[in-house]
């Protein structure tokens, strides 16, 4: 593949695509793992292909990618493993796809989660973004299809969005390769802690639910003082999520908290 | 040569038939035996259930009431009771029948099976609401505890059945009843339907025929000894107190957010738009979650865009996406129509 | 960690789970709605903050224009039919030429070379038979007849899909499918089925409602696939066209084929309706159909991915099944019991039943052993007819499939096989209604993950076909 996007990337000379080496399907040691999440039909597979050099089929149909795909790339001398999660609208239902996605983000503990968002349907896509930000702090929002949005006379102020969401927001048009260097830069900044993520938290309005969550969060904080996403865990416990209940029973959370370095041993459900 | 092939065919058919008769788990003979055992089990379990219901409703359970519930004669009922006593599931105390703790656990197990199965039918199958109870009535006697645990696991250990009644846990825990029957409400009260008793069947059928179900908010308009008039999801209904007593409600302290309207999405012709007020409680399970996932929640502005040349479905612009919904679904989404036409978003 | 510490943690775990359990009673059954509302309220606020709309109505709104055009009462259906007809025409017309090349290469050139080579290295006749006349030939046949139409049809279809046309087709036809208890998206899997049923079944993935997906899978076989068009055209030309004056023979035989294809569509609707009312009654049914914005298709990428994802994928499955079937076909024709080949024994056994339903033993056996692909049914029928009627001067020996260049040779062989007009009509019907090919069956199993639905998908069309043929035969005999 040729990198024909240098023109569009005037201000980011240092981090042009030249720092990117696509690895395709490549096994071996990786420095970081990156999860790729997003609504169906947002160009998630295109982003995946751009980064890894693979050719997953993309169609103009919601819910095309059925199987989980993995690939790799090297950026600024670090090796990244990219995991393409199933495209879903939400992470709260009991469908298999949503279960795979939410469990991977929680238990797989990716170093960063890229959330691909369709700029032309920002409001609807934010639903998933907000849910993911409940699970993980380290995320990058990839505001894809900006070319289409401008064709529809939509202007999105990514600075405001970045402030509201508390994570990097990068406009891209993955189909043309625009914005990919910046996306890589964003990933780089989050995994190295250069960008301090302060993710937005959902304001729960129902008193009953809020009280229940608060009670449970208090208890969870007491037992797992280092767990960053106790609110999500509490919410899932109230939903009766078996993988979370299992994780508490086996003490997986303890391991997640204390053995941040030994990531390979964490079993992904 | 023809003969050889036909003879082989005949032998094969015979073997399959014999296998069908005598197969240890699926064979016809085994099944007949199981049905007979099941009938026995069914009577015992129904008797325990009757006892349990009497207990929760604080009614006296007697030989007569049991005979009535099972439509048995007294003779047969007495026999059944002595069998239950043998199994130390109930105690005969004077005229009254009382569950032993073992009997109560057993009864709760059956209720758990019944309610889980109803929820399973409601959420995971397309079977009609009116049939849930009668199917569950049969299945509750057939399913083993292991099978039930598996179903409970698939359903993520749910806590409430589709009628809103709590499902006992495996260890027999069930929260104390906090609801009041609808008959105790006064004029002007707002309340939410928490559960609808699914027995007796005729009364339950009348309640469902009115479209009343768990989760609906109601407002009492009139209450006399003869009738209760109330509003629920935009419709006004009238019930006799006898029937209303089968609806359990929670009194609401203040007026709830209005979630209903006399307009639904189906009333929007292409070019018109409206704001979502709520989704009818009649839509539940996967269907409801899907609708919410695509952005149909109170406050969403929806513009009707194009109607299929077949007249149905219609494509609506919902939060930036063009999504087609069938009329049947659109009719369950309440909206506040706006006169303004034209521009999207 | 020491033991007392461990015990403490264990108690902590239990207390959390207990607390969660009791809280679950408190939140009640409706909390999910409330939670979703909270999330959406936040999302709406954030989005409103960030989005601004540039001056409206600048420029021409292509999306709106295309939607009006493609879903209008007047132009919607004609445009759809026109596009489908063009795609099918390009496929049928365009595939002939490369198919010819491939069959010249694989069958006329390479096959004799391989045979000679096998003889030169002293391979025993039976091993050469199994390997070259059986396995190689079946595989070569499948590749040369299947590859070109699929390599044309799938990319064309994928281009339409990427552009965003197909969801509009589903939108237009949904009402029709709804009446049959099915989903509008089934229009797509059905159209795809005209190319290849296995690909049509993979296409049902886009239907997210379990019941409607199963309906689409089970009834997909009624879409007359690429492998069956040539059979229909051949038989219609030979038998139906011969009934009328030569001037209109071509038109009438073409009409006969179109009639069969339309019958297939009718059967799709009828059986969908039947399934939704009977065995699939209790399955969950949901509906949602998103009409994505039109996007300019990326032609080169589409060609590449549709070739890899669909064409090669389906072809590979077909080859995997064709190879053993080729061996079976050859063995049946060459293993002799009491000096008569096994194939002839079976043909004799099947003949009474075959004749009862207006077919014959040869056709039934051909449909059994040519299960890997409908494309090899006619060559197998020819080979078996020549074998069982001991015709001389046709074909290349027992177990070797072949085809003719000219129609008169077909006529001679079919006449020798005792074929009548009834046989021809029933073969056309049976070709439409019989069990799907093994590739499709395997795909059905893969998609539905259920032996039960795979069996239903195989038996439903088969039983329907047998019943239909039986009725036609009995009615025919009343008049002739």
Task: Give the uncertain stretches of chain A in residue-range form.
Answer: 1-16, 59-66, 258-269
Category from helices, strands and their pairing of chain A: alpha/beta
Please give the count of helices of chain A.
10
Helix content of chain A: 25-40%
Specify Rg of chain A, calculated over alpha carbons: 18 Å
Oligomer: heterotrimer
For the record, the count of structural domains of chain A works out to 2
Characterize the overall form of chain C.
globular
Beta strand % of chain C: under 5%
Structure summarized in a few sentences:
The complex is a heterotrimer of chains A (269), B (345) and C (480). With 269 residues, chain A is α/β, with parallel strands linked by helices.
List the main descriptive attributes of the protein structure presented here:
heterotrimer; B: 345 residues; alpha+beta; Arc Repressor Mutant, subunit A; SH3 type barrels; 6-stranded antiparallel beta sheet; 5-stranded antiparallel beta sheet; 13 strands; 21% strand; disordered C terminus; C: 480 residues; mainly alpha; two-stranded antiparallel ribbon; 4 strands; 2% strand; globular
How would you characterize this protein structure?
- The complex is a heterotrimer of chains A (269), B (345) and C (480).
- Chain A contains ten helices and eight strands.
- Chain A is of the alpha/beta class.
- In chain A, strands 1-3-4-2-5-6-8 form a seven-stranded mixed sheet, sandwiched between helices.
- Chain A is globular, with a radius of gyration of 18 Å.
- Chain B has a six-stranded antiparallel sheet.
- Chain B is flat.
- The N and C termini of chain B lie far apart (77 Å).
- The mean pLDDT of chain C is 86.
- Chains in contact: A-B, A-C, B-C.
- At the A-C interface, α3, β7, α5, α7 and α8 of A face α1, α2, β1, α5 and α12 of C.
């Amino acid at each position: 593949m040729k990198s024909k996007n240098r023109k569009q990337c005037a201000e980011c000379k240092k981090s042009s695509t030249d720092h990117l080496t696509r690895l395709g399907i490549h096994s071996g040691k990786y420095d970081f793992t990156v999860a790729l999440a997003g609504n169906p039909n947002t160009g998630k597979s295109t982003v995946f292909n751009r980064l890894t050099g693979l050719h997953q089929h993309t169609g103009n149909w919601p819910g095309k990618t059925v199987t989980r795909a993995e690939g790799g790339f090297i950026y600024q001398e670090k090796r990244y493993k990219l995991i393409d999660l199933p495209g879903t609208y939400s992470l709260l239902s009991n469908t298999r796809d949503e279960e795979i996605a939410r469990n991977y983000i929680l238990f797989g503990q990716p170093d960063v989660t890229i959330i691909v968002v369709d700029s032309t349907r920002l409001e609807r896509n934010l639903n998933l973004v907000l849910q993911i930000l409940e699970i993980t702090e380290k995320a990058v929002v990839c505001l894809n299809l900006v070319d289409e949005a401008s064709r529809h006379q939509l202007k999105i102020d990514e600075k405001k969005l970045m402030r509201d969401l508390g994570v990097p927001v990068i406009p891209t048009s993955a189909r043309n390769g625009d914005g990919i260097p910046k996306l890589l830069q964003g990933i780089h900044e989050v995994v190295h802690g250069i960008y301090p993520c302060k993710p937005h938290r959902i304001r729960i309005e129902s008193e009953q639910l809020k009280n229940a969550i608060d009670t449970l969060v208090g208890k969870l904080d007491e037992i797992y003082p280092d767990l960053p996403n106790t609110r999500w865990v509490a919410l899932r416990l109230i939903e009766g999520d078996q993988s979370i209940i299992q994780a508490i029973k086996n003490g997986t959370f303890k391991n997640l908290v204390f053995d941040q370095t030994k990531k390979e041993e964490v079993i992904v459900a | 040569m023809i003969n050889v092939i036909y003879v082989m065919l005949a032998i094969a058919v015979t073997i399959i038939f014999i296998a069908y008769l005598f197969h240890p788990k699926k064979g016809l003979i085994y099944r007949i035996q199981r049905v007979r055992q099941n009938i026995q089990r069914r009577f015992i379990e129904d008797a325990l259930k009757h006892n349990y219901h009497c207990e929760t409703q604080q009614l006296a359970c007697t030989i007569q009431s049991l005979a009535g519930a099972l439509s048995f004669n007294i003779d047969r009922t007495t026999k059944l009771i002595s069998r239950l006593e043998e199994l130390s599931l109930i105690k005969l105390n004077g005229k009254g029948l009382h569950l032993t703790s073992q009997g109560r656990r057993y009864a709760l197990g059956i209720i758990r099976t019944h309610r889980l199965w109803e929820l399973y039918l409601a959420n995971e199958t397309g079977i009609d609401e009116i049939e849930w109870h009668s199917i569950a009535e049969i299945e509750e006697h057939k399913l083993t505890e292991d099978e039930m645990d598996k179903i409970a696991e698939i359903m993520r250990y749910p806590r409430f059945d589709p009628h809103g009644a709590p499902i006992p846990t495996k260890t027999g825990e069930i929260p104390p009843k906090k609801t009041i029957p609808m008959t105790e409400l006064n004029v002007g009260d707002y309340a939410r339907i928490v559960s609808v008793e699914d027995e007796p069947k005729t009364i339950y059928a009348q309640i469902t025929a009115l479209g009343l179900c768990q989760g609906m908010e109601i407002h009492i308009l009139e209450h006399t000894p003869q009738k209760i008039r109330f509003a629920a999801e935009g419709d006004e209904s009238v019930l006799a107190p006898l029937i209303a007593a089968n609806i359990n409600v929670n009194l609401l302290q203040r007026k709830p957010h209005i979630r209903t309207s006399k307009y639904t999405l189906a009333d929007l012709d292409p070019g018109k738009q409206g704001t979502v007020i709520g989704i009818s409680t009649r839509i539940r399970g996967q269907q409801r979650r899907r609708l919410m996932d695509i952005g149909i929640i109170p406050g969403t502005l929806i513009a009707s865009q194009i109607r299929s040349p077949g007249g149905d479905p219609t494509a609506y612009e919902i939060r930036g996406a063009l999504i087609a919904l069938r009329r049947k679904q659109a009719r369950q989404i309440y909206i506040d129509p706006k006169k303004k036409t034209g521009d999207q978003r | 960690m020491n033991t007392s510490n461990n015990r403490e943690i264990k108690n902590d775990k239990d207390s959390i789970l207990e607390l969660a359990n009791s809280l679950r009673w408190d939140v009640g059954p409706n909390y999910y709605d409330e939670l979703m509302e909270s999330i959406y309220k936040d999302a709406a606020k954030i989005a409103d903050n960030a989005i601004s709309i540039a001056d409206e109505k600048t420029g021409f709104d292509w999306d709106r224009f295309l939607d009006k055009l493609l879903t209008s009462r007047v132009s919607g259906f004609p445009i759809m039919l026109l596009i489908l007809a063009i795609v099918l025409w390009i496929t049928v017309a365009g595939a002939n030429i490369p198919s010819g090349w491939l069959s010249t290469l694989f069958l006329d050139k390479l096959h004799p070379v391989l045979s000679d080579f096998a003889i030169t290295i002293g391979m025993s006749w039976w091993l050469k038979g199994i390997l070259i006349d059986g396995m190689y030939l079946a595989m070569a046949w499948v590749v040369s007849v299947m590859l070109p139409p699929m390599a044309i049809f799938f990319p064309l279809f994928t281009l339409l899909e990427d552009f965003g046309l197909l969801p509009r087709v589903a939108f237009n036809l949904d009402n029709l499918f709804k009446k049959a208890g099915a989903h509008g998206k089934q229009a797509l899997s059905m159209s795809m089925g005209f190319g290849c049923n296995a690909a049509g079944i993979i296409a049902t993935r886009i239907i997210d409602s379990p019941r409607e997906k199963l309906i689409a899978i089970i009834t997909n076989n009624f879409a007359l696939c690429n492998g069956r068009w040539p059979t229909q055209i051949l038989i219609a030309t030979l038998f139906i066209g011969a009934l009328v004056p030569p001037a209109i023979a071509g038109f009438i035989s073409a009409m006969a084929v179109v009639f069969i294809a339309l019958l297939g569509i009718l059967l799709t609707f009828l059986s969908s309706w039947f399934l939704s009312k009977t065995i699939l009654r209790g399955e969950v049914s949901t509906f949602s159909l998103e009409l994505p914005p039109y996007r300019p298709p990326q032609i080169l990428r589409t060609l590449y991915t549709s070739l890899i994802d669909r064409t090669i994928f389906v072809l590979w499955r077909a080859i995997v099944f064709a190879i053993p079937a080729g061996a079976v076909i050859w063995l049946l024709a060459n293993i002799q019991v009491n000096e008569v080949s096994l194939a002839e024994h079976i043909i004799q056994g099947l003949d009474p039943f075959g004749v009862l339903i207006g077919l014959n033993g040869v056709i039934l056996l051909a449909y059994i052993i040519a299960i890997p692909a409908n494309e090899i049914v006619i060559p197998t029928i020819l080979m078996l007819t020549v074998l069982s009627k001991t015709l001389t001067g046709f074909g290349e020996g027992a177990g070797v499939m072949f085809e003719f260049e000219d129609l008169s040779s077909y006529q001679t062989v079919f006449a020798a096989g005792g074929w009548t007009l009834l046989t021809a009509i029933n073969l056309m019907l049976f070709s439409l209604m019989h069990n799907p090919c093994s590739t499709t069956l395997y795909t059905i199993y893969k998609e539905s993950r259920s032996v039960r639905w795979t069996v239903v998908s195989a038996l439903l069309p088969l039983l329907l076909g047998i019943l239909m043929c039986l009725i036609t035969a009995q009615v025919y005999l009343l008049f002739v």
